[in-house]
Design a protein that fits this description.
With about 400 residues, this protein is an all-alpha fold. The chain is about 80% helix and about 0% strand. It is globular and about 55 Å long.
Length: about 400
């Protein structure tokens, strides 16, 4: 690469990384900046394809990951059929178009620019950790002042909310970062300096504190499942290391202290253990006759309020929501999609991604949506990126393998 080519690459590299970080930074609040950054990344892909004539390489990348894109297209086909036959065909078709460019096309963007080494998995993960740590500090500020740091609005009710002013969304992103930090501490502790290790431990416990005080039971369950699956599959390694044993004992001790020292936390924990449903059972029961009446194709994407005649936020159950929106064929399409992902995780031996996905799917049985929630579907796409980045490798890896095979 000559000097001018190197300079142009650095410009593209810097611009893309800035846009990528902005997208991650504003994803939890789902505002206009998030939507603009999504469009900018797609425009950046199209521009890069036009300037560098890399269409063939793009097709090769899609070919290497064709199983996941075929599964996503099957899901979109079910969405299209349900939309045409649904309650609001035009609105549903618009939702389908948004699903394509917000999520499917975004997965293409991430895999494409990862392959061309515009960013690494380590950098992408660092962006996620930094972003969610900013929201964590905002939650900590809320805890002590009862005001949001960014919007200067008062905190209402129990549970930290961050600038989203929704404790379940805030708890969800805290559960994500707490799980990531726990994994890094357990896997990378011997590869980082003592100062970095102390910083990570402090950051982990601050996240754990804000996760607990979000009062989001589904988010507690998310981290609890990830923690359980990781520790059970690595029990020999943990028991052979005194530092791991002490760390986990400290975590359990702090958890007991936290939940015993705050009556609101104790009450929420009791409700979780008792299986209190917060009226979810009533929502699910009212949806069952409707699901039965349009069993095959459902009522169309985003049809919850119209189908049930309610103003409630959503179904609060991933499986029932898909049955209501897309019918049994939609559920089969999503099941196939998830089977493909889990099969790939098994083949690449990155089992921690499977733990993360299981925890995420468990949360979706009580909160969120894998059909039309910007945050939840984007998190799923990020998981897919981390899975399939192992499949495609980077351009350097690909070139090296080609040279070796030619010898």
């Amino acid at each position: 690469m000559d000097h001018n080519g190197r300079r142009d690459y650095l410009k593209e590299y810097n611009v893309f990384n800035i846009v990528l970080f902005i997208w991650i930074l504003f994803l939890p609040v789902k505002n206009t900046v998030y939507q603009i950054s999504t469009i900018l990344m797609i425009v950046f892909l199209l521009t890069h394809l036009y300037i560098h004539k890399t269409h063939q390489l793009l097709f090769q990348l899609i070919g290497k990951t064709k199983d996941i894109f075929i599964a996503l297209l099957i899901v979109m086909l079910c969405m299209f059929i349900s939309s045409v036959l649904g309650l609001s065909p035009l609105e549903n078709i618009i939702d389908l178009v948004k699903f394509f460019y917000r999520y499917v096309l975004l997965l293409v963007v991430l895999l494409y620019f990862y392959y061309f080494e515009f960013f690494s998995k380590k950098r992408f993960l660092s962006m996620i950790i930094i972003t969610l740590s900013i929201y964590c500090l905002d939650g900590l500020y809320q805890y002590f002042t009862h005001y949001d740091l960014f919007l200067a609005l008062p905190l209402s009710g129990h549970g930290l909310t961050g600038p989203m002013f929704n404790r379940n969304i805030f708890g969800f992103i805290m559960a994500i970062n707490t799980s990531i930090l726990f994994y890094i501490l357990m896997e990378k502790y011997s590869h980082i300096s003592r100062l970095s290790l102390i910083g990570l431990i402090i950051l982990f416990f601050v996240h754990f504190f804000t996760l607990a005080h979000s009062m989001s039971r589904a988010s507690w369950l998310f981290f609890g499942i990830f923690f359980f699956l990781y520790t059970m599959t690595n029990i020999k390694k943990i028991l052979s290391n005194k530092l791991f044993i002490v760390s986990i004992i400290c975590l359990i001790t702090i958890s007991v202290f936290l939940f015993n020292s705050d009556p609101h936390l104790k009450q929420r924990l009791y409700l979780l253990i008792a299986g209190a449903d917060s009226n979810r059972f009533r929502i699910w029961a009212s949806a069952l006759p409707l699901i039965e009446s349009k069993f095959f194709f459902g009522y169309g994407v985003g049809s919850f309020a119209k189908a049930l005649g309610t103003t409630k936020a959503g179904m609060h159950n991933f499986v029932l929501e898909i049955l209501l929106f897309l019918g049994i064929f939609g559920l089969m399409a999503y099941s196939y999609l998830l089977w493909i992902v889990f099969k790939t995780i098994y083949l690449i031996k990155q089992f921690y991604l499977g733990f993360f996905l299981i925890a995420f799917l468990t949360l979706l049985q009580f909160d969120g949506s894998l059909v039309n929630s910007k945050l939840d579907v984007s998190v799923f796409i990020i998981i897919l990126f981390f899975v399939y980045s192992h499949v495609i490798g980077s351009k350097t890896t690909y070139t090296h393998q080609a040279k070796v095979s030619s010898k």
